[in-house]
Input
Amino acid sequence: MRPAHFIASVVTAAAAVIALANPASAAPVNYVALGDSYASGLGTGTYDGTSGSCKRGPLAYPALWAAATAPASFKSVACSGARTGDVINGQAAALSTSTTLVTLQVGGNDAGFTDVITTCTFGSDQDCVNRVNQAKTYIANTLPGLLDNTYGTVRGKAPSARVVVLGYPRIYKVPGTCNVGLSDTKRSAINSGSDALHNTISARAAAAGFGYIDVRGAFTGHEICSSSWWLNSLSWPIEESYHPNKAGHQSGYLPALRAVVG
Output
């Protein structure tokens, strides 16, 4: 007859083996995507009819991530043209105490992205450089406070969520294969604006305790004027210009997001 302590140890070991073979189910993921046109999917050419001018679509990286991972719930309220104030006053309402994952991409419109591109497209080299420098001053001096307010609102609405902030790619390869279009001076100026956004957004995300994904490396070799574009150049509809295309979301943003959140 086995001693009681021996039997107890066998039972304990067996229980441990069973536990290893049947790990506890992972907690359900309730995912909400916030942000601007880069997060909504403008540029992919495929949009949900119900999203109207927000231009949300199934080929945007938040929707692709949700399709690949099947979270318990998924909602994107990202919207073309959104600024930090739109996230605070509108989009953040989609968050709750049950939200476990948030992705957020915003700041480019606050810095005047559309006006920068317009000026650089139709103005002189110096006009472009001047407008980009104006945007960079705004990014350095005004955008940090706007981001702090936005991140604070997100944390307040979703206190237990993991929040991941995504950045913007450099638009152009310089020098590149393009023989027409913007000069290298203009292309370099626009890229410097992307770098300025990275510096400010990454710093404020870190200060808020949020994760940050820098996609500039992922898009290297796939900018406009490269041999494999993941971004639209001047295109039609005009609003899709200078946004990630299908490949930009599928091969650029999605893998970068999955590398961080799984």
Observations:
- The chain has one domain: 29-261.
- Residues 4-24 have pLDDT under 50 and may be disordered.
- The first helix runs from residue 4 to 21.
- The beta strands are 30-35, 73-76, 101-105, 162-166, 211-213.
